[in-house]
Amino acid sequence: xxxxxxxxVSILFLFxxxxxxxxxxxxxxxxxxxxxxxFLDCFRCNSDYIQDEIKFVDFVRDKExxxxxxxxxxxxxxxxxxxxxxxxxxxxxTGEGKSLTYFxxxxxxxxxxxxxxxxxxxxxLFNYASTTEAINSLDILYTPQDETETEVQEDPWNSWIFELxxxxxxxxxxxxxxxDFSGGASAxxxxxxxxTEFNYNYDYNRRKFSDIDSEGNEEESxxxxxxxxFWGNQxxxxxxxxxxxxxxxxxxxxxxxxxxxxxxSAGVEYNIxxxxxxxxxxxxxxxxxxxxxxxxxxxxxxxxxxxxxYGQEIRSRVEFTQPWGSISGRxxxxxxxxxxxxxxxxxxxxxxxxxxxxxxxSLNGEYSIIxxxxxxxxxxxxxxxxxxxxxxxxxxxxxxxxxxxEYTFGSIFNQAVNPRF
Length: 421
Description:
Elements: H1 2-26, E1 36-42, H2 47-53, E2 57-59, E3 68-76, E4 80-89, E5 97-105, H3 110-129, H4 147-150, E6 160-172, E7 176-190, E8 194-212, E9 218-237, E10 242-253, E11 258-271, E12 281-296, E13 306-322, E14 325-336, E15 343-356, E16 359-370, H5 383-387, E17 397-407
Parallel strand pairs: 1-2, 1-3
Antiparallel strand pairs: 3-4, 4-5, 6-7, 7-8, 8-9, 9-10, 10-11, 11-12, 12-13, 13-14, 14-15, 15-16, 16-17
């Protein structure tokens, strides 16, 4: 009986302290200073670091509890990464909003990038925080630059960015070993009116398997796949909504049965919204026409060793990043002029949607109807090639589907960052 009373008192004491701690947190910091409640909505940004560095606001877990909704999106550019900070006022700040753009160069370290982003987040939130008592603990620091640093300098590279990369990995056991290598080079020049890109990639994979037969002899099997891929694009801005481009491809692939695959095409793109609104919304349509030369490694199921193909492609892309969540989707239809029955349709959709407070729906799906596999070799595929995916296999469709629900409840604050363990 005594043990039960002690346990009950302990539980009551625990919940009492939790309630006191929560009340202290929800009314501001330890000194009782009222702060603006901010919902940080970002993808692929270091949210823990942002929350740990910015203490003059309270970050909350749910948008419905916030006074300010901060959406951060990112996009690769010619020489780095561009972050767009969209601030949306709620409650007493409804109708008050702003947008800031922060650019991080490709040569910046991860720490330099995150520190720069935090500076912009502070600037975006300062105006709202100045309406609270937190203004009494805030200060503004300005570090002037050298006059020589602010002068516009001539770019000896003329906006060209070059990159070299290489990666290798090894793994194995007594009966199997695997070695992978990939490398590449790229060159790109991106301006507001013209985008030029060149890329080359090489992939090599070697898999070795050992087995002991019934007579005790060791048998070894080695499987190798490799590929070379080169592509070059040039896209020109025509208006705020129209652009045009030319595209080239060259491929060699053991898996796809190509000794050589050469492609050339040209097309136009129309975006319903101006291109500068890409961080918030995009609905675009692309039409291209082109020619393709194929030299096959093995004779195909259509008894072709090489052939010339002509075709067209229609693509559509939808992307929205809004307070209610995000949605992105792509549809791609390709067909051959040589035979209109040889075509392919790909549909890809990704949705993250806030159904109601605390409940979010995630839906990722991809489906393809495939009627254009002219490159499939005529010979039978071995069990090893099938199991190890060493060779492209015939199929009339493919699909992927992911559905997720997430429900979160409890304290509305998430200011604390604890990296232990």
